[in-house]
Amino acid sequence: MPQSQAGDTGIDDTAVDALREERLDWRHKAVPASAWGSTVAEFTARRPPLSELGTPLLTLDAGALAHNTAVMASWCAAAGVLLAPHGKTTMAPALWRRQLAAGAFGLTLANLPQLRVARAFGVRRLQLANTLLDPAGLAWLAQELDRDPEFSFLSWVDSPRSVALMDAALRAAGARRPVEVLVELGAAGGRTGCRTEHEALAVAEAVRATPTLALAGVGGYEGALAHDASAERRAAVQTYLRRLRGLHGRLRERYETTHPVVTAGGSAFFDQVVEVLAPLATDGTRVVLRSGAYQIHDDGFYRGISPFARGAGDHSLRSAMHGWAQVVSRPEPGLALLNAGKRDLPFDEGLPEPQAVRGARRGGEETPDDPLTGARVTALNDQHAFLRLPNADGPAIGDIVRLGLSHPCTAFDKWSLIPVVDDAQALAPVVVDMVRTFF
What we know:
It is a single chain. By secondary structure, the protein is an alpha/beta fold. It has two domains: about 25-60 and about 315-435, Lyase, Ornithine Decarboxylase, Chain A, domain 1 (Beta Barrel), CATH 2.40.37; about 125-290, TIM Barrel, CATH 3.20.20. It is built from eleven helices and 20 strands. The strands form three sheets. Strands 1, 10, 11, 12, 15, 16, 17, 18, 19 and 20 form a ten-stranded mixed sheet that branches. α5 links the parallel β3 (about 105-110) and β4. α6 crosses α7, α8 (about 195-210) runs parallel beside α9 (about 230-255) and α9 (about 230-255) runs parallel beside α10. The longest helix has 24 residues, at about 230-255. The two termini are about 20 Å apart. It holds the Pfam family D-ser_dehydrat. This is D-serine deaminase-like pyridoxal phosphate-dependent protein.
């Protein structure tokens, strides 16, 4: 997409708006057959009740989306850091646009297919939190950079061998603009990244000697070192961030870089990232957070580990995603089977949390929600959830159960079109929008 088509938000508004003209049909899970042939805009304009949609179902909450987007934007601005949220969480251009419109510096992505989606929607500033080695992908990237002088791109690199492979592919592609790269610092037991400062400095030297690449700074991911917020894990994160800050200082001593970048920060320890790295912004360094899950948040992993939940300032996030499933069987006392499973809902960071039962229409009226106190989901099959109940009572066959979910990154990839409701906890939620994803 020519850069001239991008709006002030740094994304092509025309392309994003066009998603609302997509016609609904059998490809879209939970969309009723009565809506087939209508566009997304036509269907949502009449604010259909959620009860018109089938189950299993994933929804987003409009109020929570707006709240979370604004909270993180405000917090980053007050902290003096930039935000390039990880777009892989949602792979939804309409949600990316909200983040960019709220002040996000750019987007972070994880692989080549995701980069291509972002460029198809005209995103101006992209960071690949990974090393791009694929020759065909590098040829495409070189073409994008050469045809669009306003396209800003950062890639990571963690070995001289990677530098050599990138250089060879870019030379073969006839690249004219150098690709800006960040030296990635890792840690023992972590994921990718140089394990020592000595290795990182050798990578920087290799980059400086290569005309197709340009050294832009350092990057890393502290979240690979901790899966909980215990004192021990937080100390490990702190030690790593100080090493990252030290490497940044060494590179600044050795090389002159205009607007150097130092980037870290998932959605679990961004408070520590700001504590350690934000002071670097006073010397012209761009300190960039990459938190992505905050926009959706959850009722599981991030609810427990988010810095805001741990008292990092007077802020809070709300879960914007919910699952909905129907009771299809009551084969034993204290057991209900729901029609949603691993193909529909995330389960890698905790099983769905039963929150309320919405009664089927009885006597022509819809019954109010009842909390599911003491109930829990104990297992998921491909298409079923096992809901264990504290006694023989509970939801009846045909009732709808609202579920809290954990880990948005493995929720969105199961849905190509996600309804947005006005209020997931209302007695009768209505659909106000639909979000298209690209996985």
